[in-house]
Amino acid sequence: MKHIDIADILNAKEKYTDQNVTVCGWVRTSRNSKSVAFVEVNDGTSLKNIQVVVEKGDADYKEPRVGMSVKVCGKLVEGRNNTVEINAVPSDIEILGDCPTDYPLQKKGHTLEFLRSIPHLRSRSNTFNAVWRVRSVLAGAIHKYFQSHNFVYINTPLITGSDCEGAGEMFQVTTIGYSNDYKNADEYYENDFFGKRAGLSVSGQLEGEVAATAMGKIYTFGPSFRAENSNTPKHLAEFWHVEPEVAFAELDDVIELAESMVKAVIRELLDTCPEEMKFFDAHFEKGLIERLEDLISHDFGRVTYTEAIELLKKSGEKFQYPVEWGCDLQTEHERYLSEKVFKKAVFVTDYPKEIKSFYMKQNPDGKTVAAVDLLVPGVGEIIGGSEREADYEKLIAAMKDRDMNLDLYSDYLDLRKFGTVPHGGFGLGFERLIMYTTGMANIRDVILYPRTVGSIR
Known about the structure:
The protein is an alpha+beta fold and about 450 residues long. Helix content is about 30%, strand content about 25%. It has helices at about 5-10, 15, 110-115, 125-145, 185-190, 205-215, 250-270, 275-285, 290-295, 305-315, 330-340, 390-400, 410-415, 430-440; strands at about 20-30, 35-40, 50-55, 70-80, 85-90, 95, 150-155, 160, 200, 215-225, 240-245, 300-305, 345-350, 370-375, 380-385, 425-430. Strand 2 (about 35-40) and strand 3 (about 50-55) form a beta hairpin. Helix 4 packs across helix 7 (about 250-270) and helix 4 crosses helix 8.
């Protein structure tokens, strides 16, 4: 049906003022008096509602209830405080979809925990209207950045026969399910759809490297799946992953790319979503906009893992997790480094090889790998990357040290045989970026339907 987006009206008030307009949307509030009624309508295109002022006169007026969908035709006029509103009469309001009085979003101020219990309706609240718009703008900014820097967008498979991380936290893909008809696992998989064990991808990196060694610079942007038994505010079983891979690149190039991309997409968000960012600043994290502006206005710091461990040990802080060389940095350590030591975003490089993945380039010291994590104040790690091991023999040795099945990685190993090059990349957890830029504290609140351990809907 013909109508105008509320966002278009609010962004071009002069164009539509004193003109007849038609809008569609859902009723957010409805107030009724003897001669006049006030109905606030939102169509999802804007965080702001548009107010409809209904001159009731002698006509029968059926008050629209909160949650109803309506079509409104009327004249756009100037309102108070540089706003606009629609003047209408009862016949100008058409109810498209009724809504009973037990509609869960009758009042403002619902907790995020309550809204999580109604994921199919929570998008109609101001909070999630703003979250989904930020998510959309950030996704567009990421694509815009890479497309403008000669990267090729690649779609890597979601069903795979190899575990990128080598940690075994994969969801199994099968058409057989539970069965007692097979003597052992080998026989089971031989009779399954693919004839071998298959799972959902934990990362598109390995396949991304295949594309990068042909196209030079590629990026993937899609879902990843990890069967990690972590019921924390930072973990999802299904999340979205941004993973660039660059041929003819070393660790310094990876770091430069990560800093450039983060700054560009945050700048785009601040410029594109001022109302949404003001909303998050007011309701979820005071000073959010200032924090993001500060982040992108400074060069990011850089420190080696070994140096970071010494800084943490000398800090005098009583950490929940003890700090020793060889330990995996915890969120409390990461936040201390970024918030207290550097007071800005910081790259930590050259981690012990034992705590990093098999594919990372081994440094000459024999103890560390050319890995990098980006730590930001308030969150901790949001990016993890590395220069990849380009040496065939060294890669084989690292995989054997981890008792990996080399047959599952034959294609990946071939890349080191046929025209190998220095190359690297990183992974950005998209939901964690949204958390960081909105001040939302729980990852379940930045994705439409969160998939977590013990919970699916």
